[in-house]
What we know:
The chain is mainly α.
Amino acid sequence: MNRGSDTTRNNRSSWNNRNRDNRNRDNRDRNNRDRNRNRNNRNRDSNRDRNRRNQDWDRRRSDDYYQPRKNREIGRNEPRRDESRNSTPVQSITSNDTQPLTISEGGWRPTKIDTSTPEGKIQQNVKTGQGYLNKMTRATFETLSEKFVTVALEEENGDPPLPGLLKLLIDRIFEQALLQPTFCPMYSSLCEKIHCRMKKFRMVLLNKCQEEFERGSEEPSEELSDREKDDFRFKAKKRMLGNIKFIGELFKNKILVEPVMYECFNQLLNNQTLESPDEEQTEALCKLMLNVGNILDHEKARKRMNGYFDQMKEIQNGGFISHRIKFLLQDVEELRQNKWIPLR
């Protein structure tokens, strides 16, 4: 019984081996056929390309190849595109046919500043300072800030002195800071450098801060359309938030003092009513508190700060303000509860 089963097993294994050999042979034959077919295709393509190159060289060797194209045999029956249309001949223009350009009366002309007068010198210095501000980055701050301070000192040390130059330069600094709120710390450091070398810089800067702060509460004119009013409010809000951030950075660099910050908080809170709170003023209040709250919240000013946060709590619970401003007020309150350490 065992011998028969062994014989059957041997026959089966030999049959499987034979089938495997047949399959391998079939695969080999198939691969050879594919290889030969690919080789034939490559040869055919190479022969065809070689024939085309030979024809091209024969055509180039012919005498009519270097003739004008319209007289050359192009090897096709349809007419050329250039010959099918009536093209006008190109006329050559000589130097005698050219005419001088006519200059319009309202064309742009570069303005030349007359530096022989004090007004011209002020204008030239403002232009130079604006160039330094445009090129100023964190990498070039040290070099360009010294050059800007040198220009600002021309008001007192110039020959002759240039009164009014410092105010114009501060206007330029404010414009750059409000348009680029990200660089407010850098422009605040620039103001600190000027403040250390000019005594009256703080007074001129305070006047500019007050002017910009009061400008943020302006309303658009009734003569404007609805779209123009929306654009006016959007730009005014952007300037106000940039001004708030810049004022906070000036306070951090000890150019502005605490009473100025308290006056800003009072104006932002006194303009509020629980029935119709101003969301833009409230947002500016939160931004300023987030920026300088950790410095102002000390033991001597704790009572004043508690009064500010009580008013902010009333605005938050009033129910007449958007959820975005409510959450912003809540963030400020939670930050104070966490001892002004960011939660995340």
